Please model this.
Amino acid sequence: MSDDLPEAIPAATLIIFRQARNGPPELLMVERAKAMVFAGGAMVFPGGRIDPGDHALAELTGGDEETAARIAAVRETIEEAGLPIGLSELPSAEQLAQMRAALHGGATLAEALAGADATLDLAQLVPWARWRPAHRNMRIFDTRFYLAELPVDAPHATVDQTENVRLVWATAQQVLADADEGKLEVIFPTRRNLERLALFSSFADAAAHARETPIRTVTPWSETRGDAEHLCIPDDCGYPVTSEVIASAMRG
Model:
């Protein structure tokens, strides 16, 4: 990796499973507002950058960067979707609304938790992947991905109408099919993760696979294969598809 690349922004994202009555599990995805600099108009998993408040809370609990990333994933999911994932107990509807409003108002997660007398249970989040692109002339995120299962009796997810304009529950295969038909946009990391997620028929199966697959940072690179330039990722990180023609990968 070249030393003159800009420093990556630490971030975290959460892949939430909702088991369907029949068929594969559904995943929560949000559509980014088109005006957003990063992935504008694309369907992504809830998430965002790791804030100083996330680091401060991690330090209070004796945690490290990994803990801060999990905290950020919990916070962003409450902000973006109104879902209290990673809490010891589900807050009441009123408490959750207060927490979400506090976060939107600039409060830290620690402050929002204190206001609702809530505590974290970060063991609910299962590490899945870590992506750190190396492209030039655009914002770079060092993103940790986590899996979590939607709690029983969880409230309905609702979009925040700020960074994101809508949310959907859909199977990984359905999102991929809709992207192929031009009904929605997905960026390269999202597509690769959806292909991997589509292999599993339950949260338990995906979580078991994640625990058995060592996480190494995925940094895509380009190389010529045959007559075309491909965007590639390592073949030992659990992904069933590890290269795509760049012209296709860059179309969204």
In short: The domain at 9-213 is CATH 3.90.79.10 (Nucleoside Triphosphate Pyrophosphohydrolase).
